[in-house]
Amino acid sequence: MGKVKVHRNPPSLDMTPMVDLAFLLVTFFMLTTTFAPEEPVVVDIPNSVSEIILPDKDRIIISVADDGRVFFDMDNKNHRMSMLRYMGEKYGISFSPEQQNSFAILSGFGIPMNVLPQFLDMDPDERKGVTQPGIPADSVNNELADWIVFARMSNPKVRIAVKGDRDTNYKTVEQVINTLIDRKVLRFNLITGLEQEV
Amino acid sequence: MAEIQQGGGGGHKKGGKVRAKKQSTKIDMTPMVDLAFLLLTFFILTTTFNKPKTMEVNMPDKVDNPEQQTKINEKDILNVVLAEDDKIFWWIGLEPPVSTTNYGKDGVRKVLLEQTRANPKMMVLIKPKDESRYENMVNILDEMDITKTQRYAIVEFTDDDKAIISGELPTEEVVQEAP
């Protein structure tokens, strides 16, 4: 008799609550996820106890890689395009609409002005293979300063954040900071991770 | 539906009903659950929960005219030099002894707390050497935050500082002449 009973009730499980939960979590994660933008370079940020959260918009991120290369990134497509136009005027380079569009959707970049048009002509997969040399930020040729000036002209509300690799020589960071001070940017942020032990 | 129509007669109709009742109303949810968990895993793995934090830094504007620069009593100055290999040299005013310390809990934090307690007017001058790392600078700014030191500035590391650290400083000669 016992055997017959086992056969009558197939070992099926009511999965409804599990599915409910699973979909609830899926929905939650779908809505909260913001995809991390693709970075041109991996930056290992130092930690601090500071808990100010980086704003999501109106920001410039100047990344300094551990080998001293400098990258520049700004949000908002329209501001990026107007910034590129200003830069083009200053350096006497005219960008085609395609180049402007590909610049608008680019993430951070570290390309000197003279090779920027060629870089924008590449397709996105090709760009990944290119080692970006970094934006010149020394006193002889300071393109970073121009990017900062024109970025602030395009979007006066912008905040500047410096994202340095923890192993970067202070000298490069100093160059970037001095560039900022020279352009009267006296308040800026340093991007850090949260310290584990307090 | 087509099968029921083929059935036709009353008795058969009854049998059809019974068959329909026997069929389970449950759907096999396994593929759906598979998909749900696949998506769940994907989103869990791609989510970045802790957004990066930032520190706010205010830098003084450059003053070209030396007369406009703020003058501070040298006794109220705590020099902190960030050197290579995560070392810190510190001294007060313009004279040695130069002490070394580190970024640990009992290192520079203790020094800062002791010195600012002893002299609330103490101005901390942070002098990062070119060989120091960016992390050193962030750490020292962080220590300023932790010890609630209000008066501090990041200044350039000069040759005088170098001389003071290496011990061959001009002030030493003056001291020797004095007695």
Name the features.
heterodimer, A: 198 residues, alpha/beta, 2 domains, five-stranded mixed β-sheet, 8 helices, 42% helix, B: 179 residues, Nucleotidyltransferase, domain 5, 6 strands, disordered N terminus, disordered C terminus
Describe the 3D structure.
The complex is a heterodimer of chains A (198) and B (179). Chain A is built from 8 helices and 6 strands; from the N terminus they run H-H-E-E-E-E-H-H-H-H-H-E-H-E. With 198 residues, chain A is of the alpha/beta class. Chain A has 2 domains: 2-32; 47-194, no CATH class. A 5-stranded mixed beta sheet of chain A has the order 1-6-5-3-4, covered by helices on one side. In chain A, strand 3 (59-64) and strand 4 form a beta hairpin. The N and C termini of chain A lie far apart (66 Å). With 179 residues, chain B is of the alpha/beta class. Chain B has 2 domains: 6-46, no CATH class; 73-177, 2-Layer Sandwich (Nucleotidyltransferase, domain 5), CATH 3.30.420. In chain B, 42% of the residues lie in helices and 16% in strands. A 5-stranded mixed beta sheet of chain B has the order 4-3-2-5-6, covered by helices on one side. Strand 2 of chain A pairs antiparallel with strand 1 (53-58) of chain B, so a sheet runs across the interface.
Which fold name corresponds to the CATH topology of the largest domain in chain B? Nucleotidyltransferase, domain 5
Helix content of chain B: 40-55%
Helix/strand order of chain B, N-terminal first: HHHEEEEHEHEHH
How many separate domains of chain A?
2
Sheet with the most strands, sense and barrel status of chain B: 5 strands, mixed
* End-to-end CA span of chain A: 66 Å
Total strands of chain A: the figure is 6
CA distance, first residue to last residue of chain B = 118 Å
Strand content of chain B: 15-25%
Strand order of the largest sheet of chain B: 4-3-2-5-6
Largest interface: A-B, 54 and 44 residues
Instruction: Note the quaternary state here.
Output: heterodimer
**Inertia-based shape of chain B:** elongated
Catalogue the unreliable spans of chain A.
none
Mean model confidence by pLDDT of chain A: 80
Going by CATH, the architecture of the largest domain in chain B would be 2-Layer Sandwich
Instruction: Please tally the helical runs of chain B, counting DSSP H or I stretches of 4 or more residues.
Output: 7
Uncertain residue segments of chain B: 1-16, 171-179
SS-derived structural category of chain B? alpha/beta
Number of helices of chain A: 8
* Sheet with the most strands, sense and barrel status of chain A: 5 strands, mixed
